[in-house]
Each structure stands twice: as C-alpha cells, then as structure tokens.
Amino acid sequence: MTICLIRQETDLHPEVTEQIGPIAEKVAPALTEVTGLPLGDLLIRIVDHDTFITNAMEERRRVFARDAQDFDLSIEATRTLHYRLETEEAELHRSWMGGGAATVTNAAYEPEVLLVPEAFHHGGHGAEMLTKGIAQEFAHVAQHRASHGQVVLAYNTGRPDLRGFSDFAVGHLLHGHAEWADRQVTRMLLGREVELGQPTGRETPEYLAMSQAFVERMQDPETAPAHPAAPAETHGEGLRWVTAIIDSLGVESFNRVWRHTRLGPTHREIKNPDLWVQRLARDIRL
User: Fold this and answer.
1) 105 pairs with which residues across the strands?
2) Which string of b and e fits 91-110 if b means at least 16 CB within 10 Å?
3) Number of alpha carbons in the 13 Å side-chain half-sphere of residue 165
4) Each residue of 14-67: pLDDT tens digit?
5) How many CB atoms lie within 10 A of CB 269?
6) Please, is 79 exposed, middle or buried when counting C-beta atoms within 10 Å of its C-beta (0-12, 13-18, 19+)?
7) In whole angstroms, how far apart are CA 41 and each of 2, 112, 140, 151?
8) Cα–Cα dist 57/55, whole Å
9) How far apart, in Å, are the Cα atoms of 22 and each of 5, 45, 109, 163?
10) Prediction pTM value
11) What is the C-alpha to C-alpha distance for residues 224 and 168, in angstroms, rounded to an integer?
C-alpha cells in the first residue's frame, strides 16, 4: 500500500491545494494497477513557482556536476553545461504557468512530486487536470523506482554521448509511458481520458500572454532548445510507441524496459515498434 505524504509549503490558492490529497489517494492504487509497477511511499510537495524552479534546476545541476566529475570534463565543456543550465532556468521563469507538476530527485536521489497551485489556477484547471497531472507524476516515480534511478540519469545527463545514451530515446519512453498511464487512470477514475492543452475558458490574462510568448519562442531555433521540457512531439511519438508495445506484448513484457538501459528503445525503434519487439525477443533468448 502506498502512503502519500503531503507537505504544504505555500498557502496560495487553497481551492486547488485542498483537492490534492483526496485525488492522490485515488490515483496511487489505480496507477499501480494499470502499470504493474510499485510506487512505494510518496512525498508530494505543494510549492510556489519559485521553489518549483529552484528544485527543478538543482536536480539538473547535480546531474551535470556528476557528468563533469565522472568524465573529468575540460573547463570549456563544463562551462558549456553551466551555460545550458542558465538558459534553461531563464526559460522556466518565463513559462512556469505551462506546467504545474513535475517529479524531481532530491540530493539523496529520491523522487519527489512537486505541484504548483499557481499554475493550475492561472490555467483554469480543476480536479480533472489535477488527476491527470498527478497520474503522470506518479508514473515518473514508478519509472524511477523500477529502473533504480537509471532512467533519471539517462534523461537528465548533459552528456548522453559519454554515458552511452546517444541513441536511447529516453524522453519518448518516459513521457510516452506517463501519457499512456494517465489515460488509463483517468479513464478508470473519471470515465474518460483527459486531454492536455484544451482551453478551459478560465485562463487568466497572465496565462494567455505567457502561452503566446512561449509559442513564439519555440518557433525560433535560437530560443526553442532553451526549454528543459520535452517537446510535444516527443510525448506523442512516445505514447504511440508505448501503446503499440503494450497492445502487442502486454504490460508485464513491456516492463522489462525498466530493468536495464540497454533495453531502452532507440530513435529508430520509436518509429518502428516491431524492431524493438524483435530485439526484446533476442534479449530473452540470451
């Protein structure tokens, strides 16, 4: 049984905050049921957007520092990683309303779910979107635990080339699986899937302005790479891949992907799921 520990670190928007505990208690067993992955006990931190950004970037800095240490990177290579962090942090300050939930690892490399009531308020989102967001983040916690943290390292490293992850479509795997899981959970709990990006009619002027500015920046090749979040096409392609694999092999066989990063799908396999199925079959025979 999963125990959800909720730590309230902001008093902003109690109309959002008061819904989180009851929703989390329903989502946790549903998520375990549909994914076949244990969650363990969970820490949910309800934070303001500045704390959200600080913790997200601290995770990135820890992984980048580990990259620099493990590979004895040159001063120039290390400076490149620091510059990337600075641009990502600046972008998060400009676009935080677009994402009200994230899973980060703390200094002990344990996962924590961060929820930002301000973001849900500005987006005009209620219980349905909270359910979706919590389901996705719980899926990321399950991924972390099932892979003993290896997928987090693969996703956050600044040097996938040196870690042997250059061809690992880790963003597609993590986000596609979280999308698949949240659709199963919302269908189970709410009777239907909840789509992201649908207008609510309750968006604040600040949210609308931030969204428009974000779209404009993402159309510019000079600014688009600055955002640390995976682009929408990664989520969509990943969802199609995960759905195809689970429909073909079932959840138990799919979950072998968490056991070792060598089983992670390549970018070519994301486009052609049958190639991964064939590789998995070869791995089972070895």
Assistant:
1) 111
2) bbeebbbbbbbbbbbeeeee
3) 20
4) 999 999 999 999 999 999 999 999 999 999 999 999 999 999 999 999 999 999
5) 21
6) exposed
7) 5, 10, 13, 19
8) 5
9) 12, 15, 27, 40
10) 0.94
11) 21
